[in-house]
Structures are given as C-alpha cells and as structure tokens.
Amino acid sequence: MNSAPVRAIDPFGLRASSALRGVLFGTAASINNLRKDIDGGQYNSFIKKNYHVIEPENDFKPMKLWRGINNYSWIDCDWLLGSTPNSTGWAQQNGMQIRGHTLVWAQDKYTPDWLLKQESSLSSDKVKLLLSDYIHAVVGRYRSKVLWWDVVNEAVEDSKNNSRPFNLRDCFWYRKLGQDFVKYAFMFAHQADPQAQLYYNDYNNEDMGSKSSRVLELIKWVRSQGATIHGVGMQWHIRISRTVNPGDQHYQNAQRLIDNDFDFMVTELDVAIPINAGNPRDPNDLERQGRLYRALLKYALHFSPRCRALITWGFTDRYSWVPAFYNNTEGAALPSDSNYQLKPAYMQMQEELARVLPDGIYRLAPKSQPDKCLSTYVNGNVSRVQLESGGCNSAHQKWNISWLDNGTYRLSSQNANASALTAYNVTAKTGGVQTNNWSSNVNQEWVLSSYGNNVFRFRPRNAWWRVFALHDTSNVGIVDFVQNDALRWILTKV
Ligand code: XIL
Fold this sequence. Notes:
Strand content: 25-35%
Structural class: alpha/beta
Number of helices: 15
CATH architecture of the largest domain: Alpha-Beta Barrel
Helix content: 25-40%
Bound molecules: (3S,4R)-3-hydroxy-2-oxopiperidin-4-yl beta-D-xylopyranoside
Distance between the termini: 42 Å
C-alpha cells in the first residue's frame, strides 16, 4: 500500500485559486531570466501559472538603476513595463501586476558607490534634490504601471537602542537628511504617481518585538507629517523553527497595524531548512516547511483584504538567495525544488486555497433545475440521495458543509436519520452517492471548486477526473468530468 498522503490536485495553479480567495500570490523574479525564457520555458510558465504579482528581485534597486546624476539604466525595467506611458512590456502582456522594490534602501552597502563617494562634498539641500530627482525619474517613468512601491527598505536597526530617532540606521540618507529622508521619500513617490500604493518594508518586523513597534512609530510619524503611506511590507525570511498560529504575536502585530489603519503584506517569504550539499538534512523538514507555508497563507487569508498579497522570494530552489546567505548550511527554502518539482509547501498552500466556502448549512440546487434541491431519504437499509422539488426547507433538504483542513469538505445531511454524503463505485461508468456514518473515508471527502456567484462543482477526493453531477434529469451520481451545467450546483446558505 502506498501510504503517501492523497492530495487535492488543482489543475489551475495558485494564480487562479488565490485570486478567488482575495489574496494575490506573487514571487520575486529576475527580469533577465524572464527575458531569456530560461530552462526550456519552465521558469516563465511556472510564473504564469501560479502568480499575479512579480517583484523584480534586484532590477528596481538603486544600485542597479541609478548610475550617476541623471544617469539611469532603464533597459531591463523597460522590457518589463514599456518605456513610455502608452507602451507595454512583458508584465502587461502577461497580466502581471508589479511590486517595485525598492526606492531607498537605507543601508550603505546597498547605496550606489558613486553617491557614497561624494558624501562629504554634498550639501543636505543637494541630497534632498537628488532624492527627489531619482524618485521622480523612476516612479514617474513607470507611473500607473507599478501597483505597489517599497519606498523605504530596512531603515530601522535591529539592535536594542541606538541614539537615533526610531532606532534608524546610520546610513547615507540619515547622515544627510536626518529622519526626514523617510518622509521625503514618501512625499516624492506620491507626487510622482498618486495612484501607487506606498509601503515601508523591513525584516524581523513580523512579531511584537521592539523593531515592529519602532516601525509602527516611524510610519505613524510619516503620516502625521502629511505624507501618503499605505502599508507595511513584512519580509518573512524565516527558518523552519518559527511557529505561526492564530492569536499569536504575528497575528497581534498584524492587527495592530490594521487598528492603526495601515495595510500590510508578506513581501519576501522563504523558509530556510538545514541542508547538506543542497538537500534537506532531515527529509521531514519538507513537510514541516509545508505546514509553515500553509500557516503563513492562513494568516494572509485571515487578514484579507488588509493583507493584500503573499509574495515569496522566488519560487524554485534553483534560484534562491538563501543558500548563499547561510553559507550553504541552510536553503531549500522555496515552494518548488531545483527541478521545478512541487514541494509539500506548494501542495499545502494549494490545498488551503481550495477552501472556497465558509462552513455552514446549505441547500444545493442543480444549476440546470434551480427549483429542485438535493435531499436524503433513509429507511432501514435504504439510504438514498436524490433531487426533490418543493420549498426545500425541510431538514432532509439541507446540508452542513464543513472544511476538513486537508483540502476537502464533509457534507452532513440535516436529516436525523441520514449522515455524511458518501460516494461509492467512484470509478464505475456511473458511480453512486448515498449517506453513511462518518468514518473519515476518502469517499466522504469532497473537493469543491468555485465558478463564482455561489456556483460550485464537487468531486470525490480520490478521483479528481470525476465529478458529482446529474446523470439524467432526476438522478445524481459520479460521472466523468464534462464541462456542462449538470455538474454545477448553486449553494445557498440557510
Ligand atoms: C537580496 C537578493 O535576493 C539578492 O539576489 C541580492 O544579492 C541581495 O538582495 N531583503 C531585501 C531584499 O529587501 O532586497 C534582499 O534581496 C533580501 C533581503
């Protein structure tokens, strides 16, 4: 017997299912890789199938774009977005939203060398002008093509207490402009593109520690100065030892941002695990990692729409910054492996996204005969599931639908004598349905897919190519999937 867990198979990918749930999925990507359509097309096709949002990993950073005063290197970003207001690039042509990262990276090691070299000869007024020039040039060039900008990245220092306001880092911008550099950056970005959503982004600001409190004070101050700021990016570069649960510090921190009227999102998620020669030291870590990815997704869904997106810092272990960051002792941090094979992390997220319906009591009417409903009839050994007409208000015409936390749902009849909707002969030409006592059998676990407007289809968990449908005008059962109204059910909450 193969004891591997049976998993829901979603032919649509994360892109479609995440959109249904209201949280956009995104990934960091390299424009150069997109452009070269590397790895036999696998890189681009994985992105198109799974993501709505691309965040270029390095291409929008000042070190890449800003070559000197009035000297910019647009070539890659133009390819992605088009070089003029009316032209398009790969992003628009492929229905991708863009997250721009980052206008100001408040660390000297990520500030252009040519700028640092002039530090002693530049006056503060001149530096303010340069900041304005740069932000207007970049944000203005791609006006209305970038949905979100990280305006300032990593400005707050981790250490306990330095003497600077908000525990800001000692960096070029601070030395020249004081704390005002943060405010100016947001003001200039808003002037350059009033529609863009503007974020402050950082790491280690996910929990209720001193850093996230300082970040909150900083962004409240920016807003109090009259600048526009919409939200906070939390990077979430984490390790396998992290735990994330409803009500914990991470949830409290997110709620605290919302209470202060800020949006937020997960901007750079990866989950590092100990590796040896590139492979996980403990294979069980892959399942643990999967559960952690799923916990993050639940957190994002919990706070939707104030949590706008969930973005991972890449999607294949083939291209990830993590091993280099940890000197090759940790890695394997992303949802697919170095051959683009889906890891438990991907499957766990996809299962969680399959939760398309809130738990509750429902009536089920066939789309083709909306005046009828699915009902139960039980008498001794006879257990029937059939269609009935009439008001559909009796208990035997109602179903308690509940999420099983494994990608599937259980449907329990409200008929006192009946129990859970159960499929049988699922692979026969016409399989059947009846009600049976709940026994955690796979034939009692149903995968739902949404067509929108309260219309759904159901399939048995272990037969993804089959579907629960009318197989003639009055009988229901399990048949091969064919795209027609016979498999569409209108679910109405009672
Ligand atoms: C990293 C990139 O992934 C690397 O390729 C690059 O060499 C350095 O930067 N926080 C951030 C990201 O805000 O920009 C960083 O990205 C990872 C940490």
